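Quick one, probably user error.
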């Protein structure tokens, strides 16, 4: 092999560890969510944090093919990546963009969130025409101008270099059905629409109005709007499996996480394996070295048999401490295991399944965090 031909070769996508994106599951989720949206409400796909770990560009390309023409991201870098990848439609940056990156907003036809009236002044001083959506704080007290500051909000509509094309807020208690949380969500919704009515009565054109995110759509679709910013539900999940939204949709998980068996090793009675030699064997066991670790997003707290994997349709418990790049599992009861076998960490193998809910519960977190931590060195493959 010549040096040139070697340079032209690329590692195989499924050689070590990878993520599979189920195209059909994504399509079905889009259809189910669209059916629940209020009339004239358009789905805005939230693909921030690498599409919750699923791969922003491959997911956005699939969504473009499905007719999705609005996307939400967290950073300008995420938005530029999508534009460079050929993604069409409105790209709304939901977070802060530093002034040194303001030139990129117009250059790549991006829409910037106005997180406060002071930030609007900063954007306006840049001098170039910028499309913006105003973020209104209706009670979450994170980003956004307080809804009672109506005069300051109105001033943004009169800024020379800003083109207001939308206005939005965020429900902070929409994911629970406790009576007090429902009351708070309804108060936020009322404050949002009252703010819009006051602005429009004064001649302000608010553009696209959006309040609902995933749980807003599942619990309060009647709140309405022109966009619904769908994140975790788009990927077939809730934040917690125990959540019981008013509208239970037939959503399908989109992501599977897989790796391979690199080698098999006999562990004799009295021996431990891995860092700190945890989990001393009481009898001879067979250990498989799996090609994935915590640098790939596998939570280290699944060590010492708290977590397991699927090999040839059977569960194999994790042995000892999960390493940065590798994980040891006990395949004593799966004697047919071979080097090169695929290993499923999230997804199905035979009749067995490990869900993102199972892993997030074991890690004492939510699916949003678990999946958004999936490592960048994992190829995302649409299947």
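Nope, works fine. Designed sequence:
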């Amino acid at each position: 092999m010549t040096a040139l031909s070697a340079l032209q070769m690329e590692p195989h996508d499924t050689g070590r560890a990878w993520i599979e994106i189920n195209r059909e599951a994504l399509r079905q989720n889009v259809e189910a969510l669209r059916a629940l949206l209020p009339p004239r409400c358009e789905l805005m796909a939230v693909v921030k944090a690498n599409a919750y770990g699923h791969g922003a560009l491959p997911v956005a390309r699939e969504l473009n093919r499905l007719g999705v023409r609005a996307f939400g991201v967290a950073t300008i870098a995420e938005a530029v990546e999508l534009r460079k990848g050929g993604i069409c439609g409105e790209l709304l940056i939901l977070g802060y963009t530093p002034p040194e990156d303001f030139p990129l907003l117009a250059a790549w036809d991006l829409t910037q969130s106005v997180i406060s009236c002071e930030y609007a002044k900063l954007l306006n001083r840049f001098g170039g025409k910028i499309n913006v959506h105003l973020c209104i704080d209706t009670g979450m007290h994170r980003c956004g101008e307080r809804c009672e500051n109506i005069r300051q909000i109105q001033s943004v509509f009169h800024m020379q270099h800003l083109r207001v094309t939308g206005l939005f807020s965020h429900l902070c208690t929409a994911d629970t059905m406790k009576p007090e949380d429902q009351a708070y969500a309804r108060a936020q919704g009322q404050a949002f629409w009252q703010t819009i009515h006051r602005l429009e009565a004064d001649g302000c054109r608010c553009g696209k109005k959006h309040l609902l995110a995933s749980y807003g759509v599942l619990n309060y679709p009647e709140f309405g709007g022109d966009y619904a910013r769908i994140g975790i539900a788009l990927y077939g999940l809730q934040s917690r499996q125990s959540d019981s939204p008013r509208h239970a949709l037939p959503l399908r998980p989109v992501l599977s996480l897989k790796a391979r068996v690199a080698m098999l090793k006999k562990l004799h009675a009295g021996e431990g394996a891995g860092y700190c030699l945890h989990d001393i064997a009481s009898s001879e066991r067979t250990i498989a070295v799996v090609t994935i670790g915590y640098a790939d997003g596998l939570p280290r707290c699944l060590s010492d048999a708290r977590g397991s994997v699927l090999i040839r349709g059977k569960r194999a418990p994790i042995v000892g401490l999960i390493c940065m790049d590798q994980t040891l599992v006990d395949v004593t009861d799966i004697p047919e295991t071979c080097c090169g076998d695929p290993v499923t960490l999230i997804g199905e193998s035979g009749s067995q399944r490990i869900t993102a809910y199972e892993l997030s519960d074991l890690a004492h977190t939510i699916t949003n965090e678990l999946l958004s931590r999936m490592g960048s060195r994992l190829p995302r493959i649409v299947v």
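The chain is about 30% helix and 25% strand.
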